[in-house]
Design brief:
The protein has three domains: about 170 residues, MutS, DNA mismatch repair protein, Chain A, domain 3, CATH 1.10.1420.10; about 80 residues; about 200 residues, 3-Layer(aba) Sandwich (Rossmann fold). The chain has 21 helices and 13 strands. The strands form three sheets. Strands 9-10-11-7-12-13 form a six-stranded mixed β-sheet, with helices on both faces. Helix 5 packs antiparallel against helix 11 and helix 9 runs antiparallel to helix 10. The longest helix has 30 residues.
Amino acid sequence: MRADVTTAERIGLTWLRAAVAPVGAFGRRHDDAVAPYGPGDETRARAEIAGVVALAERLDRDGVARVRAALRAVPEPAPILGRARAGDPLSDVDFYELGRFVDALAALARAWDAAAGAPERRPPSVEALRAVLAPGREGAGFYLADAFAPGLRGARAAFALEEAEYEARRGEIAARVRAVTGIDAVGDEFVVLRDDYAGPLPDGVFVVRETPTYRAAAVRVVAPDRDAALERLAIEEEGARRALAERVAREADAVAAATRALGALDRALARVAFAQRWGACVPELTEGRVAFAEATFAPLADALGARGHRYTALSLDLRGVAVLTGPNMGGKSAALATAGFLCACVALGVPPPAREASLPLPSAIVWIGGEGHEDRARLLSSYAAEVVRAGDALAVASPQTLVLVDEFARTTGPREGRALLIAVVEAVRARGTLALVATHFDGVAEAAGVPHLRIAGLRAETLDAVRASDLDAALDAINAAMDYRIVDAHARETDSDALALARLLGLDESVVDRARSLNERSTRS
């Protein structure tokens, strides 16, 4: 499904992608690799959506949140496993991080079980890798245990004996230093002031540097057997780490499969969380129709909720091309956006937030109306931007395209604008394109020979009784007074209710009264 930047913003696709973004790196990687569904993908798209809805019904919201938090905490093992597969040695820190990965998978599985997740969809575990690392994971960290290589125990025992002998000899020299100079020879160096002791230093002590006032010295123990034992131990440990890395590398395919499964689960749970918040249905996926009942345009509902306003769900049945008219603030743009948003949902495998829906999988969605960021960058006026976008849309329009037209040509002369809009509607209809066209121009639907829908509009008796104290109160009053149903217009034009809205939104009463007088005079003439 193609949608340019302006369309993505207008139909809420940009918001939707953020709302269903996976929480972890595996999920993001998986999501990036999955192309949106398009024409011909109806069976696969519906299967994914049905699976998400089933999960949303089974899992509780708090449980989903906990599982997603556990997913976020799973560390990325790929770089470590990549080095292991390349034959590079791994460090104890690497093995520790792999242990964290194993533990995070176990924590994720526990969160899934606590959320009442189905056993057959339980997150994967990597028990073979856990077993490989187990000898070094008795505590919280990781230790290269003797069990990892047959020669480790002997090498460590031999070094321990030589180390004990080394420390004993060092202690003897330190005792002689203390007896002669009264100084405890601790650390790598010690200082002997010449005023305190100017005589010779004991055997086993060498001077590091000297000045007229002091000598800096250090204990020197010649211990070739200790050095040899240490070298042997280092070789044994390096061999053990290489052998352990080879065993880890053999589990790389299983770990990769587990991370792929985690990615798919992350994508699914992002959609589950969306469905649990906004509602969901399993739609019928058919060409040539955009129909939904009690649907929520979630970006708008989210914005309204943040300001304490109520959102009213919308219903629509669009077949082919239709023109939508109605009052200002009546929800025409929201109806267009909802149609595009629900189609974008199914294209991304997201259950549409509606009681029921019948939707297409369009190859492209195009929004015509107003201007976008790219239009401003090209220094186009609103009218020029709309014309360019209309031309681009007609060039690619097909029965698999959804075109949404919002107040096209409203910034030019009304007669020419109306004529141009009628011609555009006729051209879209001729191409077999699905399209919903919102306008204030009169007679467009009848002239173009397409169905005419309208927003039912304001309940005047409700609105006239309201005197709002501020903008938020005015918006609440408009919302309460507006009938947002989309109904058949029956060839009857609908007033825009512009003057009533202007009064409620705080425009000076004398200005509104003068406008009403002028409008009535114009209507009579």
